[in-house]
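Bit of a strange request maybe. I'm writing a small parser for structure token strings and I need a real example to test against, not something I typed by hand. Could someone generate the tokens for this chain?
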Amino acid sequence: MARTDDTTESRGYRPEGVDDVFTEGRGAGASDTPPAAPKSGPALPALGVRGTLRWTWRQLTSMRVALMLLMLLAAAAVPGSVLPQRRLDAGAVQRYLDDHATLGPWLDRLGFFEVYSSVWFSAIYILLFVSLVGCILPRTGAHLKQLRARPPRTPRRFDRFPARAEATTDAGVDEVVGAAVGHLRGRLRWLPRFRVVAEAPSGTPEAPVRTVAAERGYLRETGNLVFHLALVGLLVSVATGQLLHYRGQAILTEGRGFANAVVDYDSFENGKLFRPSTLVPFTMRLDSFDAKFTAEAQPRDFTAHVTVTEPGEDPVKEQIKVNHPLTEGGAKVYLQGNGFAPSVTVRDADGQVAFSGPVPFVPQDNVYTSRGVIKVPDVSPGLDQLGFVGFLLPTAEISDAGALSLYPQPYNPRLVLDVYSGDLGLDDGVPQNVYRLDTDKMTAATDKDGKRVSLILQPGQTVKLPDGKGTMTFDSLPRYVGLDLRYDPSLVWVLTFALTALGGLILSLFVPRRRVWLRVTGGAGPDGRTVITVAGLARHDDAGLQNEVDSLVAALPGASDPPGAPEEPAPPAEQERGESDR
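Reply from user aminoacidic:
Good idea to test on real output. This should exercise your parser:
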């Protein structure tokens, strides 16, 4: 503490501006001696490299910075869900770049099309991880010390605590103390309610005094630490999953299958540590697909019947339903979508088969009006390539006003196609969307009046193409399914740590932190009765604290309220002064 007589003038300097205040308005005779120049203040020590690093570490490992990084991570993840990502849909990224010639390249340079593998997202992720670890380790050490420490000693005065009670009894001091210790500890020896310490006797032989100190609520801080440790576990699990995961999509037509190999998937994306050799080489064939709808064309049930064959094993019949995936090769196989894949045969003008097989059409509405493209590049030399774009109508109704589908089941299927001829652009080396037809270098077929020609086919029908370019046959109408295969070894750990974090959060929110003290004085009451005084203190507002004190008094043998006992507890404002009396 600073000495009261150690003034600024005795130290030989005066704060800046004091001389002006003292000399302002001085009368004649005042000294004209100019004041001495003020000396400079004490020089602060330089922080240095080590001090700077220590200050930076303390800021990084503070809870405030950890919460800021957590919010920043959530904000940084938003562009990944708003903008197309190159690893999921490279075509969508290219279309975005074409549509936004100015903004797109800048976003690409900054990594907004590869958010989750960008440098800035990884930096936030790593900083959050370091911050959480730096917060948890010191708090864990301090918490372990608290668990081994004894409860605080009994204060001298109880009258300022927010919860208190008094009683008298004919029982002896030791009997009361034993009953209090048993009540506070509870019935479970391995999980006591309170940590209890019965302090050594004091007082005189005529008026012995014994005190008991008890504390509970350490699970509150334990839950807090468990919550933060679970967050670290979640970060590690998600990072591990992103490194090892893979996901592939495949379209299967009835009667056809695929092998679990990278080259057999229509699209495939994986983590940086994934190795194709880790794929289990099973095969899967779609035997049939059942779709059920209500009378109002609402979907009711979808079931894909498949045959799975693992290496060295017999084929096994399985089913895949919506929200009921099939587990195969350590991965989940989900039923992602379904539709129709009309099987057609196209012959060119020379009568050669230029194309034959099923083509998936994408449903556009709830009655499965499906749009699709058929590309026929393998025509005879010298002939134009052919392209067909149009719709499949499962239950068609065709009139002068147009054609539409009335129901999603194939009760009256029709294939309505426009015909184009020319260059499909497949030899340019630029990837194309199989569901789009580039007509820049193609010409639409027209009749003599210049109107566009449309082909309308039903299953089993063969029609001639315009201008003698060949024929098309609608062979059959099989169904197809879209399968989504996902492998992520971290899912179980993510669930485990999420539940652990929830449990820790519940403990940290609902476990009360309480301290209870008991003082027993023998022969101090009326007729030589034993006097009991109890006080309680909570770290935060605790509506159940007074009930805790009252239940302790009620558990003591023969306890009764003394004359003039207080009826109301002290106001919460007295709580802070309670601990100063220890």
